[in-house]
Amino acid sequence: MAVHARRQRDPRPADVRIPARRTRITAVAHPTRPYRRGRGHHQAPPRPRHPAAPQRHQRPKGRPARALHLKAPQTHCVGALFYVCQVIPFFALGTFSPQVMKSLGVTGDLAAGATYNLFLLVGAVLGLLLIDRISRRAFLIATFFAGAALLTALIACADVSPVVAVAFFALFALVLAAAVNLEFVYPPELFPTEVRASGVGVAVAASRIGSAASTFLLPIVVDAYGIDIALGGCVAVLAVGGLICWAWAPETGKESLSEDA
Questions:
Q1: Could you tell me if residue 126 is inside a domain?
Q2: What 3-state DSSP class applies to 249?
Q3: Which DSSP symbol is given to 194?
Q4: Is the confidence at residue 66, as pLDDT, over 50?
Q5: What are the pLDDT digits (tens) for 116-142?
Q6: Tell me, what CATH number does 239's domain have?
Q7: Which residue of 40, 104, 150, 249 sits 20 to 30 Å from the alpha carbon of 135, by its own alpha carbon?
Q8: Which stretches of 107-226 are DSSP H helices?
Q9: Count of domains forming the chain
Q10: Residue 198: which domain range?
Q11: Per 3-state DSSP, what percentage of the chain is helix, strand, and coil (rounded to 5)?
């Protein structure tokens, strides 16, 4: 009766009263491992393990990494040398085309310069149309030897007529402008993903050195030795570039960048 009376006098609701009996509070078990109860203090639940690091991209079995490292020096040489051998005559003769035309006996500098620039534009468009229709290797080798042959004909036939000189020089500009399209496509295709940035960087750096050196040396060579020696030097550079590509340049037209990765 006394307990019942005391419950009647308690103003708190029944759902917030503290029970008289003690209850043992147990911790929630770890979701992956059962919680072990021990005497005295409760043991702390184990910490969750860190997630496993994602696996790195595995190289396809058909192209082992060792083979890529063995071919890397040769590929770097091809990427740098073909670029250098293209830009030396392109920048040297293109920058000083009025002086070259005047040295060849062409009096109409304005008409000759306009013809040269027009054939540069036509060659760039023509190369853009041909670059995916023929193999990269054949395109590269053919433009080197064709440019060397046209410059040789220019040296041999310059005294015949100014019109012939302008025609050969314009055709040379067309061929070289078409080949310039390869400078944006071929170097990235030469290298796998691991060394593509460094490989293209080496090729571009070498080409900047070659273009600066040729632009600096051409007027000096023309003043000291004449236009024939200067053009002969450009012919030698183009021939060397063609021979290097003939010996070392691989065919990359049928490969995609995802396959090189």
A1: yes
A2: coil
A3: H
A4: no
A5: 889 999 999 999 999 989 999 999 999
A6: 1.20.1250.20
A7: 150
A8: 109-130, 136-157, 162-180, 182-190, 193-225
A9: 1
A10: 73-248
A11: 70, 0, 30
